[in-house]
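Design review, sub-item: ligand-bound model
Attendees: FS, YL, KQ
YL presented the inputs for the S-adenosylmethionine complex:
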Amino acid sequence: MTTVTERPSQELTETTDEDLTETTGEDVPETGDLDDLGERAVGYLMGAAVSALVCLGDQLGLYRALLDTGPATSRELAARAGLDERWVREWLHGQAGAGLVRYLGEGRFGLTREQAALLADEDDPAFLAGGFGVLFDLFQGWERLHDSFRTGRGTPYDDLGPEHARDESRFSAPWMRANLVPVILPDLAGVTAKLTAGAKAADVGCGAGRALLEMAAAYPRSEFHGYDSSAEAIRLAERNLSHSGLTNVTFHHAEAASLEPHASFDLVLTWDCLHDMTDPAGAMRAIRGAIDPDGTWLIVDLAGRPTPEENHDHPLAGLLYGFSVLDCLGCGTSVEGGLGLGTLGLSEPVARQMTSEAGFTRFTVHDFDNPLNAFYEVRA
Ligand SMILES: C[S@@+](CC[C@H](N)C(=O)[O-])C[C@H]1O[C@@H](n2cnc3c(N)ncnc32)[C@H](O)[C@@H]1O
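KQ shared the predicted structure:
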């Protein structure tokens, strides 16, 4: 069996000039569906425009103002948000046309309960506005992508700016907060009993530390350590920690590979970060050394299908490959020789193989009804 340490692209068969002439031009089947394809393309174009207005509404506090003080005219909403009425009116009509704000007649606009959950209420598990913020952060410094396509080398996480770490956390935290402690941890064998009694847990690639803070608040007898290679993420995590008042949490600005091999952690979490790492195999070996022989490692990562070709039918393929090219592939190739798994690259077969190569023997798949992520309980 080959090990998963080479770039995935190198696993593909080499393409020769002869192959290219055989697979271009006349061999591509005609479908005669220009209208359907055009409709699809226009849908993407409209999605991009609507997404930009969602991002503005989130950043400028327009959804929040509609939620906090109820239906409003453009004049009232502009006054509440401290903005210009003409611009707010144009935004409101665009949002009503996109179905994201409800027009109530006589110049008044409001949010339905569902619109508020998705766009205004950051505490709702369905809150999605953070995802739009992540996307628009990635449109900054566009030239970096031209460079990456030419050189193969991606952009380090911190070069994407402090907003990136904040918005990624706003994207992942709402669902995580509603599910990690009440639903996910109780489903892992023996974990909540250990945490209740007093255990040691780590979140590797912790970002802004939301998962760790949720667990630390729920299990005050346990100690929690967050590790992240991003200075911006750890700065944010420290700020979140100081607002929480918790005393059982320590954040470390450190690479996963620097975990000490003391076999001391009863629980390790890696949430949506292994596929971003330049050396996920090294991180997995470090986790193997750091975890107690009876400990549990929970991997949460994007639910890619076993092969890229199977991902073509993934209902969110366009979105997830978009994030990959704009973000994750760049993080994973930001050093010479970085593996670059890409957003969907840690599929179940890859995760099974890599964890086994790192010395883990047990691998259990859980389903927590999440449209994006897969959940693997891994043990030594
Ligand atoms: C997509 S973010 C997820 C953050 C957090 N787990 C969450 O769900 O909000 C990926 C994180 O992995 C971190 N990361 C990437 N490579 C790392 C490494 N080798 N060691 C530690 N952290 C790493 C990044 O800095 C980033 O904070």
